[in-house]
Amino acid sequence: MDVARAVALLGMVAAHVGGVAEQLDWSDPSTWSAVVNGRSSTLFAVLAGVSVGLVSGRTDPPGPPEIGRVRARLAIRAVVIVVIGLLLMALNTPVYVILPTYGVLFLLVLPALRWPRWALVSAAGVCALLSAPVAIAIVPAYADASTFTLQLGLVYPVVTFLTYVLVGLAVARSDLGPRRRFPDDAPAASGPCRWGEARSTQVALLASGAVVATAAYLAGAVTAPVPTDAGDAFPGVPFVPQGASAGQAFAQVFLSPRDHSSSIVDVVGTAGVAVAVIGLCTLLFDGRGAVARRIAFPLAAIGSMPLTIYALHLVVIAVLPPLPQEPATWWWFAIGAGLFAALWSRFLGRGPAERLVARIVSVVPR
């Protein structure tokens, strides 16, 4: 999970400073860098749902009163994340900050902590269907909004991203892998049967995510090709080109494969990509031994402190003069993040922002 989280973080950094293409076109290799657009923030949100699921009992969420304490801790964490997000927005960087939406999503998902997996997937499906209409409905409220306000619910629509968190929570409720080995449950946790079940789940996540994403994007490419003037579209909001017929407008709103379009195709496709990445990362690294851990360590270190790395990269953007938007800039950020995270993790353990949040959350006992 830490490796997958690092992929999401580095993808968002690439979208912010890497000079990536505006829109992905698989027939044009020069645009392939645009794969990070939309999909990185989606993976980040799906992993938020996975994290919520892992701290709330994995496949077996507890009942009262323990689930109440879990909800209280998550609620405090959500408020702290919102506050940190607002402080980062105050830096006035050219980056749309996801953290306030991220914190609100933690609050919205609290009632679903004990839902069965089928209910989580069903709720995610409903949110995917409502994503575009809700995104259109809230646009008038932002008619005269400042750049600061636009980041609160428009660029990262809450209903759209709630879909991703619910998907992540459903993923966490699957049997991704044995729990950490403690003396009392070591035989059950380390047995070959448990790892066999986990590998089956990981393969299923990889395969199903890839199939769903491919099917969604193919359907979107056929029914609602991205318009040539889609560069005028605002992130998070459906876009209909001028002169479009009613049928074409309907297709662009609900079936567009454009990144950050909030269409059903966009939401389902990006969620499928996120699930496939999680399946691949767990399949490659989870329980593979010391060699795999050493190979994964730089990425795992970044992913173990996502709040710290995300905040630091915005601080760097704010402090330094305007940076050139090019791959070399991304490489400097990626190398710097890897070195910082690896050294901090090796000698000091938990990241500084994560440590601060954990200290505040600890007011609610486990």
Structural write-up:
- The chain has 366 residues and is mostly helical.
- Helix content is 65%, strand content 0%.
- It has 15 helices and no strands.
- The chain has helices spanning 2-17, 39-55, 66-89, 99-108, 117-138, 147-150, 158-172, 186-190, 192-223, 246-255, 264-285, 290-303, 306-319, 327-348, 352-361.
- Helix 1 (2-17) packs parallel to helix 13 and helix 3 (66-89) runs antiparallel to helix 4.
- The longest helix is centred in the middle third of the chain and has 32 residues, at 192-223.
- It is globular.
- The two termini are 23 Å apart.
- Residues 180-193 have low confidence and may be disordered.
Layout of helices and strands, plus pairs?
Elements: H1 2-17, H2 39-55, H3 66-89, H4 99-108, H5 117-138, H6 147-150, H7 158-172, H8 186-190, H9 192-223, H10 246-255, H11 264-285, H12 290-303, H13 306-319, H14 327-348, H15 352-361
What attributes characterize this protein structure?
mainly alpha, globular, 366 residues
Summarize the structure.
With 366 residues, the protein is mainly α.
Shape descriptor reads: globular
Radius of gyration: 20 Å
Strand share of the residues?
under 5%
Q: What distance separates the N and C termini? A: 23 Å
Averaging pLDDT over every residue, what do you get? Answer: 89
How many E strands? 0
- Helical coverage, percent range: 55-70%
Number of helices: 15
Oligomer: single chain
- Helix and strand string, N-terminal first? HHHHHHHHHHHHHHH
Structural class: mainly alpha
